[in-house]
Known about the structure:
Structural class: alpha/beta
Mean pLDDT: 96
Number of helices: 14
Strand content: 15-25%
Low-confidence stretches: none
Bound molecules: manganese (II) ion
Oligomer: single chain
Amino acid sequence: MTIYSHHDADGIASAAIAVFVARRLGLKHEVRIRNQLTYEDVIGGEGVYWFNDMGSARLKDFRGVKGVITDHHTPVIYETHYTENGNNIYQFNPHLEGMDGSISQSGSTTTFLFSAHLVPEVSAVSHLPIVGSVGDLHDKKFGRLVDTDRELMLLARGMGLVEVKEDIRYFGRSSKPISYMLRFGNDPRIHSLYDNPSAVADFLSRHGVDRRDLKTLRWIDLDDGKREELISDLKGMLVREGGDPERLTGEVYELKSEPKSSMVKDMRDFSSLVNATSRKGKPEVGIRLCLFERGETMTEALQLYNDHLESLRKASKTLEEAEGKSVGNVLYYDFGDGVQNNITGTIATRIITHMNVPKTSIVMVMANLGSMKKISARISLELSEKVDLSLLFRQAATSFGGSGGGHRNAAGAIVPAGKEMEFVRMVNELLGNLVTA
Ligand SMILES: [Mn+2]
C-alpha cells in the first residue's frame, strides 16, 4: 500500500494513523508526504493507495487509482465511490455529509473514523486526531474542539491518553517561557503587553516572578493558584482595553504520557513539533513521535524544531523588509527564492494574525517552485463567512493551467511562473463579484 499525506501536522498525524493500521493488518507500506500532489502522484500503479488530508480537491486528475481518500479539504466531486477514468476510489470527507471540514472534522479525524472500522485497536492512538485538529486550528473559533473532532477528543480522554483543562489559550504553555507567551499572545491581544517585553517583565514581577526566571519559567510550571491569579489580572486588562476577556481562556489538551517537564506536554506544542519535522524534510521523525517513540527521536525532533524556528525567523526578517503590494482587496507578497516554498502558508497565517490587515482582504504569499509559483492565501474568519477561498483559488488556478484548493479561510495554488499577476487580478475580480453580489 502507498500512503500519501499532507506535509502539515494534520497530515503527519493522519499518516501515523494509517501506518498504525497498515502494521496491524500486516500490509507492506510506503509513506509519501507531499506539499501538494503532483500529476504523477495521482496516476495509479500496482497496489492500493491511501490518500490522507489531501486528494479530494484533485479527484478529477486521478487516473487508474485503486484505494481510499480520507480528507477534509473542499472536494471537487461529491461522491463516496468514484469510478470514472479507470479509478476505483472510496472517498470519505465531512463535506459529503454537509459538514464544514475547516472546523468540524480534520483530516486526521477523518482518517481515524475510517480506520476505526477496520482496526478497532486504533483507539490506542486516538490522541492523534487532536494533534491534527489543533494543528489545523480547529479549536480557534470556539476556544475548544467541536463536532466530530470533539467526539474523538472525548474518546482519547476516555482512553486515558489526554487530559482536558480549562486554561489560558495563548500558544506555548509548555514550549515557551511565559514572558514569550504573553509578549506574542495575540488572540485576544492585550495591547499594553503585546510585543512589549518590559511591560511583560513588570507584569510578571508584580506577580512575584523572579526576574532571573523570565527566560525559563513556563506557564505549566506555575501552580493552579498562580495561574488563576495571572488569568484574572490579564482578563481585567482586557476589560479595561475593551477587549474580549472570554477569549483568553478555553480548553487545552495535554498528553498524559509526557512528563510535566516536557516541552510538548501541551498538544498544540506537540502539534507544532510534529509540523516542524515535516517542514524540515524529516516527516518520518514526526510519524515516529506520533506513535510514541521518544529518546533519540525526540532529540532529533527538537533539533528540527529549532531549525524550523530559525527558518521562520529568517522569513520574518525578509517579511519586515518586504513590502506588501495591493491589487484591489488582495494584499500580496512575492518572495521569489527568498523563503522556503513550503512555509508560504505559515507566513500568510502570520501576516493575517499579527499585522493589521483589513478584514476584507485576501493575504497572499508567493514563492518560486521550479517553473511554477506557489501561492498561499488566508482570509479573516469574518470574510470566510461570505466567501469560500478554496473555490476562488481553484477556479482562478485552473484557468491558468495550475491547481488550487483548500479550505474556506485558507487555500493554496500553484500556477505557472509569470502568470501570478493575472492570477492575483482574477482572484480580486472573483472576490469583488462575490462580495457585492
Ligand atoms: Mn488538514
